[in-house]
Amino acid sequence: MFLLELNWLGILAGFVVYFITGAIWFGPKTFYPAWMRAKGHDPANPPGMHGMTVVFGLTAVGALVQVIALASVLWFVAEAQGAAGPLGGALAGLLIGIGFAAASSLSHRLFGGDGFRVWAIEVGGDIVGLTLAGLVLGLIG
């Protein structure tokens, strides 16, 4: 089974990079205030701050699943034509970020009434995070 052959140290490192990227992306000095305003909320008084342990936990699980999926794609590429390397890993992360994370969530945000700006802020973080995770996976193996 190919999951046993994945570089789990690389996956852990990619996950940490992805999660930290998300924390910086949605930080109080970066996109968090614009994101909250785009959602119609006051950044100084955000709604629903209870249960944040569950929110962060599930966010971490989601990020880990994405990095495992990215590592799996890179494993299959390596089996077919050799290791992708850092540039190939970053490109794979970028393409998966745009082709799956961004494309699949667009209709959800638009039909949910969140609008294009909310979507752009959210998927921007996903695209950057997956690109950096792919770079790390390409570097580590």
UniProtKB/TrEMBL annotation:
Keywords: Membrane, Transmembrane, Transmembrane helix. The chain crosses the membrane at residues 6-27, 48-77, 83-106, 118-140. Coiled coil: none annotated. Pfam families: DUF1761. It comes from the Bacteria. This is DUF1761 domain-containing protein. It comes from Microcella pacifica. The lineage of its organism: Bacteria, Bacillati, Actinomycetota, Actinomycetes, Micrococcales.
